[in-house]
């Protein structure tokens, strides 16, 4: 994934620092509560929401079971429509393909539609290393780019910034990237949007190459679909002469009829709208209309590994609506940067470790970045049981071993033996009761147990074991 996240601390350490930032917490609380409340009202308008949710789940599951067939059908349809399909096994291959395609045009700058897949592979950094400037055109992504920042939310990448911070970023850095911010720029949303529009218009009219992702790919026709709220994406998709789309293989759906379900559930779950203001679809190329050259880069980058896991596979249903982030109590307090990935929140806690593995400290910590409250599952429009996958991944992390896990296993094994031998259990209970006055309140002398008692006291041992009390009070 993106090189900008390399070397970040594990989630517990990153979150500990984030929760000390009062401005960040206030920004997140205001934004997530506003979005979640609007979403709830939008969903409540539909009497068949549960049926739509189940339909989306089943469509995705059927597609994933036969993904190889649908991908080949998609390739044939895109090729027949005048496009060119490239297969990328990992991030390095995808970056190399895109960089070579841009170089072949002779251009040294591109405009980009907001895309999680290109962030995942670190495409901007790869293009920069090749001497190619990539300009983000989504308003929130523009804020992040101008601020030399990282996205912290799937839908609203700059959710951690307030209006005053955005005005300061525009005033300070816009001139370094192109058209400067207007003099006397205020923090009114309309003024900030106008400044971004003027800044981006020059780039739209000049760019010869556009790069996008896609929300869906329809296998039967080779059609790609991008949904957005601003119109900047449509400018990127229609004005350049060459369009390159980098899309994860799991974004495939079989038919146009399947798309109908997701065009109802995605906007309500993400932006709380009945329908997206801009839904752009394109099938290959057309003479005199839109880009004259189209390339589709189908990205694996760990997805087939996820597909092979019967429990983890459901993660690939995700349609990137971000509803789970907006209801997560952990995300609301820690923010997106603490997850060390372009995929934050509950979905990031299960997707990132599956795509990257759990060998690094940050990835091994992500399955534990949750209270398992289940709110994420309740709002997911494709019914991903995120808590189930989190527990599944926690088991995998534990099975990797390490000193702490070995001691934990030994302790559980010993406890199991005691619980299976009543006489030993009785003796242990009586010994613990008789020595209760000597029991410490904290376990500071035991490094592996000290963290647990740093924030809680050990329970007080009763003066008499329960079974002795029961015999004494019920056998008389």
What does this structure look like?
By secondary structure, the protein is α/β, with parallel strands linked by helices. The protein has a domain at 403-474. Helices cover 53% and strands 10% of the residues. It is built from 23 helices and ten strands. The strands form two sheets. A six-stranded parallel sheet has the order 1-10-7-4-2-3, with helices on both faces. A hairpin with a 4-residue loop joins strand 5 and strand 6. Helix 2 (22-44) crosses helix 12 (256-270), helix 3 packs across helix 12 (256-270) and helix 9 (163-177) runs parallel beside helix 10 (189-206). The longest helix is centred in the first third of the chain and has 23 residues, at 22-44. The chain is elongated, with a radius of gyration of 26 Å.
Arithmetic mean of pLDDT: 92
Sheet of most strands: 6 strands, parallel
Proportion of strand residues: 5-15%
The radius of gyration is 26 Å
Order of strands side by side in the largest beta sheet? 1-10-7-4-2-3
Overall geometry comes to: elongated
What is this entry, summarized?
Residues 394-473 form the Lactate utilization protein B C-terminal domain. With 476 residues, this protein is an alpha/beta fold.
What are the salient characteristics of this protein?
10 strands, 23 helices, 476 residues, six-stranded parallel beta sheet, alpha/beta
Fold topology:
Elements: H1 11-18, H2 22-44, H3 49-65, H4 67-80, E1 84-88, H5 91-105, E2 109-112, H6 116-120, H7 123-129, E3 133-136, H8 139-146, H9 163-177, H10 189-206, E4 209-212, E5 216-218, E6 223-228, H11 232-238, E7 242-248, E8 252-253, H12 256-270, E9 278-283, E10 293-299, H13 303-307, H14 323-327, H15 329-334, H16 345-356, H17 361-365, H18 375-379, H19 386-399, H20 403-419, H21 422-434, H22 447-453, H23 466-474
Parallel strand pairs: 1-10, 2-3, 2-4, 4-7, 5-8, 7-10
Antiparallel strand pairs: 5-6, 6-9
Domain Lactate utilization protein B C-terminal: 394-473
Keywords: 4Fe-4S, Electron transport, Iron, Iron-sulfur, Metal-binding, Repeat, Transport
Domain 4Fe-4S ferredoxin-type: 316-384
């Amino acid at each position: 994934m993106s090189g900008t996240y390399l070397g970040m601390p594990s989630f517990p350490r990153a979150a500990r620092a984030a929760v000390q930032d009062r401005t960040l917490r206030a920004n997140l609380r205001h934004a997530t509560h506003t979005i979640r409340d609007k979403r709830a009202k939008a969903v409540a308008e539909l009497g068949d929401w549960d049926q739509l949710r189940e339909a989306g789940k089943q469509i995705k599951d059927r597609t994933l079971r036969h993904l190889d067939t649908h991908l080949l059908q998609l390739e044939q349809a895109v090729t027949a429509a005048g496009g060119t399909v490239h297969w990328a096994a990992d991030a390095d291959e995808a970056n190399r393909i895109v960089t070579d395609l841009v170089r072949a045009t002779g251009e040294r700058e591109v405009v980009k539609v907001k895309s999680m897949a290109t962030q995942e592979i670190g495409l901007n950094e790869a293009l920069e290393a090749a001497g190619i400037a990539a300009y983000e055109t989504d308003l929130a992504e523009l804020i992040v780019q101008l601020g030399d920042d990282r996205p912290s939310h799937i839908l609203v990448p700059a959710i951690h910034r307030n209006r005053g911070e955005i005005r300061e970023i525009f005033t300070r850095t816009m001139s370094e990237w192109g058209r400067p911010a207007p003099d006397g720029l205020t923090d009114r949303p309309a003024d900030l949007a106008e400044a971004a529009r003027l800044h981006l218009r020059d780039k739209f009219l000049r760019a010869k190459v556009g790069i996008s992702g896609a929300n869906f790919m329809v296998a039967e026709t080779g059609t790609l679909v991008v949904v957005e709220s601003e119109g900047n994406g449509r400018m990127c998709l229609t004005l350049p002469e060459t369009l390159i789309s980098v899309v994860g293989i799991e974004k495939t759906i079989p038919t146009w009829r399947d798309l109908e379900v997701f065009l109802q559930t995605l906007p309500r779950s993400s932006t709380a709208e009945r329908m997206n203001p801009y839904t752009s679809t394109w099938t290959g190329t057309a003479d005199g209309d839109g880009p004259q050259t189209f390339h589709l880069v189908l990205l694996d980058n760990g997805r087939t590994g996820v597909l092979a896991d019967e429990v983890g596979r459901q993660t690939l249903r995700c349609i990137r609506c971000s509803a789970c982030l907006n209801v997560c109590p952990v995300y609301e307090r820690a923010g997106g940067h603490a997850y060390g990935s372009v995929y934050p929140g509950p979905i990031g806690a299960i997707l990132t470790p599956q795509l990257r593995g759990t060998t690094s400290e940050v990835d091994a910590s992500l399955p534990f970045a949750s209270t398992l409250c289940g709110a994420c599952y309740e709002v997911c429009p494709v019914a991903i049981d995120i808590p189930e996958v989190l527990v599944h991944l926690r088991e995998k992390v534990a099975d990797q071993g390490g000193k702490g896990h070995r001691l934990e296993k030994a302790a559980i094994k010993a406890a199991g033996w005691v619980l299976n031998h009543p006489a030993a259990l009785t003796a242990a209970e009586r010994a613990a009761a008789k020595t209760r006055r000597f029991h410490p309140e904290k376990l500071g002398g035991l490094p592996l147990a000290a963290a647990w008692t740093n924030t809680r006291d050990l329970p007080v041992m009763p003066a008499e074991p329960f079974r002795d009390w029961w015999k004494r009070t019920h056998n008389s």
